[in-house]
Amino acid sequence: MKKTQKLTLTAMMIAIGTLTSNLLYIPVGFTKVFPVQHLLNVLSAVILGPYYAVAQAFGVSMIRNMMGTGSIFAFPGSMVGALLASLLFLKTKKLYLAFTGEVIGTGILGALLSYPIATLFLGQEATLFGFIPLFIFSSFAGGLFGFIILTVFLKNRVILPSATGLDHRR
Prior knowledge:
This protein has seven helices and two strands. The chain is mostly helical. It has a two-stranded antiparallel sheet with strand order 1-2. A hairpin with a 2-residue loop joins β1 (about 25-30) and β2 (about 30-35). It is globular.
């Protein structure tokens, strides 16, 4: 895929991620769970690679934060998740590791990065028993959805394996 195609697809993912995140979210107590962002992290990690995946995560997070629908807590975690998913997929060419990278990167490392800010704003108890489990759940749900969609798309040749670097015989 050419750079201009990757940039165009990244911009489209940012637009789709921003719009759908404002419409499709799961309200849970004091927060909202945005599995679409994690889905896009996995898709961009596999299809576009690390630079574009991080740009996509950054773009959606920035726009959502400017619109007042984002979360300052999720901002660093989403980029870490996209980067880790990309790097694991790039090194192994295994879809399940892109999903695992998203969950570990966003859900666990992202939650740890966001912990001090979340504790400051929400308090320690709300952060430990509300925010962090929801952060992990959101990345797991969206990452799993991304893994399933990619598997179905590749199986039905909606996305050609060569676009992801996957060998079609695997």
